[in-house]
Amino acid sequence: MAGRVITVTSGKGGVGKTTFSANVSAALAGLGKKTIAVDTDVGLRNLDIIMGLENRIVFDLVDVVEGRCRLPKALIRDKRLDTLHLLPAAQTRDKSAVSPDAMEKICAELRHLFDFTIIDCPAGIERGFENAIVGADEVVIITTPHVSSIRDADRVIGLLEAAEKKHIQLVVNRLQPEMIRRGDMLDISDMLDILSIKLLGVIPEDEFIVISGNRGELASLNTTSKAGQAYKNIARRLLGEDVPLLPLNNSKGLFKRLARLFKNH
Amino acid sequence: MVKRRVKFSGTDSGLLMRLEWDAPLPQLLVELEEHLQQSRSFFEGARVLLEIGRQPILKHDMEQLAVVLARYGVTLQGVIPAEHRDRPPAAPTPAPAPLPVPDPQTTLRLEHRTIRSGESVAGEGHVVIVGDVNPGAEVIAGYNIFVWGSLRGSAYAGVPDHEDAVIAALHLAPIQLRIAGYIARPPESRPTTASTPELARIDQQAIIVETWERGRVLLKRG
Fold first, then answer.
1. At what angle do helices A147-162 and A127-134 cross, to 10 degrees?
2. How close, in Å, is residue B167 to chain A by CA atoms?
3. d(C-alpha A87, C-alpha A59), whole Å
4. Test mutation, B117, B130, B193, chain A, max A CBs within 10 A
5. Which residues of B touch A151 (CB under 8 A)?
6. What is the pLDDT of residues A90-103, one digit of tens each?
7. Distance CA B150, CA B198 (A)
8. Full residue range of the structural domain in which residue B186 is found
9. Among residues B86, B117, B140, which one ends one of the domains?
10. Residue A262: how many CA atoms within 13 Å on its side-chain side?
11. pLDDT tens digits, one per residue of A169-194
């Protein structure tokens, strides 16, 4: 079995990489795919908290790298889904504890154990970023509709192109259709115009994300959350399904335009 | 006067020892010792190179010479071929004809891609980008800059002092423009949606931006 290794990155911090990684991993697992979410944010780990698995950590990524345990032993199985797993980062170390070489080996091993390896990248473009992308087949860039976030996404895409990563897709997070309709928020077509990469999905702003994150619950496992539905749709698109964008209230025009964008890219 | 079989001379290469091999080694060693004896203070602590001619010199002989020299505080540093000293310094080989220097005004750097934030593309002559220049990216040229796409980053043309350089783009919405020593930024009120190609150049000590007219010749000739 040779699974897919997908890195989730953004350049800028706080745009929703970890939430995306947790939710899309859970959505893929929910669709029956054996999935592992990997936290590469050594020293500032969060993915375990978002997934509600913090209290199950015994070994972590750095333990594997430094040979204190074998890889399978550090993997934590999710409490809800048998197909969902987590490889946590170390909290008491820093990024230099992991080398790109070591990370590449771990990715190669995970590729044989899982259908999907979702790597949650830390913010920034330094060592942690390098570690997170080295073993990736595909990359998902997360951006919010803010100029600074788009600028950083553009920088990261440039670095990924230089690293010869071919499959780069964009996810626009925390979109507020109402604000776009009023002309107060950047339009998706403007973002695609600048970044000129394929759009994988759009996730609406949803306060359930804050609530679920704090509780260690996952929106993509919730049936009523709009963002959760968007994550599930993205998971299905990753599996090759042609899933149209969500219709959101009062924004039919916008999403009709979005549907066109999907077709164009 | 008896011909000296052991000679020392100072050269550019250092202190040189020359032996006439028309006597057996033990004889040479005796003569060497005499020579060293005579000018003991001169040789104390010296380093010499043994000049060798065509005949081979055996390792064993070298060692014996070194032993005698060492007794007078002289180090045998190595050997040097005789020709090396005799040959007049080689005439310097004529330098290869210089490669023609490309005229910077005619060199062209062509980039067929999106120039993204954090990237810098520089060329001595003209720089042509077929694609967009995104915010946070910069293009630097000795002469003109042409962007067949959107220029949303920064462009510095005519670096350092070619005031006749121009910056042209299908969609000119830069963060900053510089031509030679002049700097311009678009006015805050300027709409960024202009859909006609535009051209920036220096006119009366300022950078002006004008619509590119169809068929107009951009470059001065000659």
1. 60
2. 20
3. 9
4. B117
5. 117, 135-136
6. 999 999 999 999 99
7. 11
8. 108-211
9. B86
10. 19
11. 999 999 998 888 888 888 898 899 99
